[in-house]
Structures are given as structure tokens and as C-alpha cells.
Amino acid sequence: MEFGVKLRKLRKAKGLRQEEVAGEIGVSRRSYISYEKENVRPRKRSTYEKLAEVLGCDMAYLLAEDSPSPPAGFLAGASLVTLGAAIINPVAGALVGAALAAESGIRSQEQRKSKETLSYNNDMLLEFEKRQRQFRASALGIIVKALADKEINCRMGDRVGLKGERAYPDEYLIITEQEISSWWFIFWARDPGVDEQAVVSLPDRADIMFSRFSTAKADPGRKASIVVDDESLFDELCEIGGRNSYRGNMTAILIDTENARVEKEELLSSFDIDDANDKLSII
Predict the structure, then answer these.
(1) With left for phi above 0 and alpha for psi between -120 and 50, is residue 151 left, alpha or beta?
(2) What pLDDT, in 10s, does the model give residues 195-227?
(3) Rounded Cα–Cα distance for residues 170 and 276 (Å)
(4) What span, in angstroms and rounded, lies between the C-alpha atoms of 276 and 204?
(5) Mapped to the 3 state alphabet, what secondary structure does 102-148 carry?
(6) Entry pTM
(7) Which residues contact 206 (CB under 8 A, 6 or more apart)?
(8) What is the spatial distance between Cα 93 and Cα 174, in angstroms, rounded to a whole number?
(9) Dist CA 55 CA 53 (whole Å)
(10) How far apart (Å, rounded) are the C-alpha atoms in residues 163 and 159?
(11) Is the dihedral of CA 211, 253, 23, 36 positive or negative?
């Protein structure tokens, strides 16, 4: 698959506009369009790293001259063990790139031998992505309603406005007339198909999710939340909350999508622990 086609498919799967991707990787819109339409490749490795982070893929996939769709790279053979880290965290996806590249010679032979399995895996990851998008939309709607019930005003933030940040949320809200002025979110929904194939323990998954915010600069006006629909994973996140060194405002949120409500919210970390309850009691 050509480089430009890869970018276009990944961008559309993320629901991003061309100008949004261009802004987040630090190039002009015209330059980014040339990547997609003219198959022009970036000159700097750092641009590939930023693209992998923004588009949620493995950098080795972008660097490859001709590779199958991303699910093949993530799911074939021994890569099943790294799938959980890669799809939870775009940054983690880049970190496992070297390991995936080392396996590529063996994988390419296996992929040629078993196209039926490859097709099934592609479909499985597409279903996973669909499930995550659905949960993200549902969970965010439930949270916004909870804020409205408390007469707290908010609006959706634009990720392009986060240019220069060292970490990025999946979504974020701008809160008005509160001590907390912005609220960042990352989401994870249970997916039996992927969970059965990706051998990632709950503690490891919780650590990976927590690491999404580990490079973010602590900001007393920002709240960050890890939003899940799995009580066991929620409990693991709470365990991390008792032994982490991050000092920004962070909570774990358990969403009950069937009853459209916030089931639990637990403090994981606070910029000012003495004032945590006042600042973080939005829900």
C-alpha cells in the first residue's frame, strides 16, 4: 500500500481533517496534502514519529515501502502480545515498532501463506476501532449530561489548539466558570475479540493507559480522566493511583453504557492533594 493511501485511510479512521493532522505534526496543510495525494514522504524521522502518534499506528508501518493494512502488522504471529499496548496508546505503538520490524521478515512469509487469517484479523481490528469510537461518543455524552445536570457549562475542545503539548487526549472539554478549565479524556472499551487474542494483563493495560498522561505537564487548571467500561480495569487504575508519581489532576471513570450513567469516579492523582476534592468534584 502506498504511503499516501496509508495516511488517508488512517486519518479517516480517526475522524481527523487534513489541516488537523498538519497542525499536530507541525507542517503546512499543503505539505500534508502532498503526502496523501502525491505520495511525497517526509524527510525527517521526527515527522514520521509525530504521524504515528497522531494517527495511532506503528511508525514501522509508515516507513515500510509496501505494507499491508495496519491490522496485519499488529496481529500477525508473535505481534499478538504487543497488540494491546499498540491500540491502547499511539505512543506505545511507536515504541513497539522496532520489535515489529524485527519480526517483519517472518511475518511477510506467514502472511503470504495465510491470507484468510489475515483478512479475519483485519476485520477484527476494524470492529475493535468501531467499538472504541462508539464507546467514546457514548461515554462523552454521558459525562457532558452529568455536567449539565450540575449546571456546569462546557464545550468541545479542538485538538489542533493543543499544538506544542507533550501528550494528547482522545477528546477534551473546555469548562467555564470553574477552577478546572479543561478536561482531558482517554477511553477504553472492552472488546472480547481483541482481548482474547492480545495477551495483555489488566495491570499492564492500566499502566499503558496511565502512561498516556505521564509526559503531560502538570497544570492546576486541567483535569485528566481515563474512562473505561470494565470494572476490573477500573480497579487496576485505582491501584496505580496509590503508587504513581504523577502530580497532575487525574481520575479514573467507570461508565455504565447500558444505563447511561457514570458508575464511579476515583481520584488517581492531584496537583494539590489538600484541595483535591474541591477541584475534582465535577461529577
Answers:
(1) left
(2) 666 667 788 888 888 888 877 777 888 899 999
(3) 24
(4) 27
(5) HHHHHHHHHHHHCHHHHHHHHHHHHHHHHHHHHHHHHHHHHHHHHHH
(6) 0.57
(7) 233, 236, 237, 239, 240
(8) 28
(9) 6
(10) 8
(11) positive
